[in-house]
Write a structure and sequence with these properties.
The complex is a heterodimer of chains A (about 140) and B (about 160). With about 140 residues, chain A is of the alpha+beta class. Chain A has helices at about 55-70, 85-90, 120-130; strands spanning about 15-20, 25, 30-35, 45-50, 75-80, 90-95, 105-110, 135. Chain A is about 25% helix and about 25% strand. Chain B has one domain. Classes of the chains: A alpha+beta (about 140), B alpha+beta (about 160). The interface of A and B includes residues 47, 71 and 119 of A.
Chain lengths: ~140, ~160
């Protein structure tokens, strides 16, 4: 099946994305800002997770983030955004469980067409969603 | 070989360590080829700390990138690395801010220069396509072509 917008993913739900340290930059006041590259992707499919299906942010931190960090070999921050806000930035959202250990909470953001849109346009959409995503505080190791 | 065409030391070390290019589907280690064209255009980087930084970071990211399920594929493609090295090698401006170099999911790589509220970004995608953008206060100012890069870098450094 090709790309589509899965309407069973409700607009009030929340998506989480692991954010690499080199996907942040500090503004003139030293505030860390998520950059467009955090949501950009050459193949125009950006991985996220539905928090409502991962036992919330805490469940995501407990069960999924450690797998991402283990595979990457580095700590990650977490960026969250409402599904409705992601759609208003021009993305479709659908499930791709096979791309993360058959986990149905794994979804991808993609452009709202079967054919790819231009890279520049996708990057602009990534910039919009990055502005609206909220970086979660770093959880201290215990 | 004339001295001006020698690659920077970091490139020599990387090339001798990695050996012959591997098949496209084999990502188990570094993937470089001594015949890659970026060597010939990187000569002036010996005088440009920002170029050394950029080339070194590209090499490091290429050597360490791997696919991460649920996050992205960070194996930087040959085309993306080559096109970005060419682009950087062709820049004639010796004094620029040290760039940020980061991977982008799907085999792409990104470089940006920041000066105050202004920034210039170039993303080389897995098939070698490059997108160049000028930003001010994190907002897109203009999308540019590769040929415009020198002029927008002057815009960046002229305050």
């Amino acid at each position: 099946m090709g790309r589509y917008d899965d309407e069973t993913i409700l607009p009030t739900w929340t998506l989480a994305r692991g954010i690499r340290r080199d996907w942040f930059e500090a503004d003139e006041n030293g505030r860390e800002i998520i950059q467009s590259r955090a949501f950009d992707d050459s193949s125009q499919e950006t991985s996220c997770f539905i928090l409502e299906e991962t036992d919330g942010l805490e469940g995501f931190r407990r069960n999924i983030l450690p797998i991402l960090e283990r595979d990457l070999g580095a700590k990650l921050r977490v960026g969250i955004i409402e599904v409705g806000a992601a759609r208003s930035c021009g993305f479709w959202i659908y499930r791709k469980p096979k791309e993360f250990y058959d986990n149905p909470a794994h979804v991808v953001l993609c452009p709202p067409q079967i054919e790819n849109i231009s890279r520049a346009k996708f990057k602009n959409q990534a910039r919009e969603i990055a502005k609206r995503a909220i970086a979660q505080p770093i959880e201290e190791d215990t | 070989m004339a001295l001006a065409t020698l690659p920077p030391a970091v490139e020599i070390v990387e090339a001798f360590k990695s050996g012959p290019e591997r098949s496209k589907d084999s990502f188990s280690g570094p993937r470089h080829n001594l015949s890659e064209p970026y060597w010939a255009i990187s000569g002036s980087s010996q005088q440009s700390p920002w170029k050394l930084t950029a080339f070194s970071k590209i090499s490091m990211l290429r050597n360490t990138g791997k696919p991460i399920p649920g996050l992205g594929d960070f194996r930087i493609s040959d085309q993306a690395a080559t096109e970005l090295r060419k682009l950087i090698g062709e820049i004639q401006i010796e004094s620029l801010p040290l760039p940020t170099v980061a991977p982008v999911s799907g085999g792409a790589i990104f470089v940006s220069w920041q000066s105050g509220a202004k920034s210039v970004e170039a993303t080389a995608y897995h098939d070698g396509e490059i997108v160049i953008e000028a930003l001010e206060n994190q907002r897109l100012n203009e999308e540019k072509s590769k040929g415009d890069l020198p002029s927008i870098l002057w815009w960046l450094v002229q305050g």
